[in-house]
Design a protein that fits this description.
Blueprint: H1 2-19, E1 23-29, E2 32-38, H2 46-57, E3 64-68, E4 71-72, E5 89-94
Parallel strand pairs: 1-5
Antiparallel strand pairs: 1-2, 3-4, 3-5
């Protein structure tokens, strides 16, 4: 009984808050850095996140690409599926015409 009570308390204290955790990434564009929240990296699509970035920074969707570690994020995947993990840096790369998320 004591073990059950201890394991239940452990689950409530340690595991429950993690289900409410919000992931954060750092958006960079030139010298500008800004932290952004992502509710769930495994669920949010790259295109949905790109729309959030466009709204936050006041940019047109067709005028930038999102990159992580020098690689363009794949628009047909989730953020997690594209290799983005919490606290990663996402580069906003200005382009003349983006084909990402059209």
């Amino acid at each position: 009984m004591k073990k059950l009570l201890l394991s239940t308390a452990f689950a409530i204290v340690v595991l429950a808050p993690s289900s409410f955790a919000v992931d954060r990434v750092t958006i960079t564009m030139g010298d500008m850095k800004q932290n952004m929240r992502i509710d769930d990296l495994k669920e949010m699509s790259v295109c949905t996140f790109k729309k959030q970035v466009a709204n936050t920074l006041g940019l047109e969707l067709r005028k930038f690409d999102l990159r992580e570690a020098g690689m363009k994020l794949k628009d047909d995947k989730t953020m997690y599926g594209s290799g983005v993990r919490p606290h990663n840096k996402i580069e906003v790369k200005p382009v003349t015409s983006s084909f990402q998320c059209r």
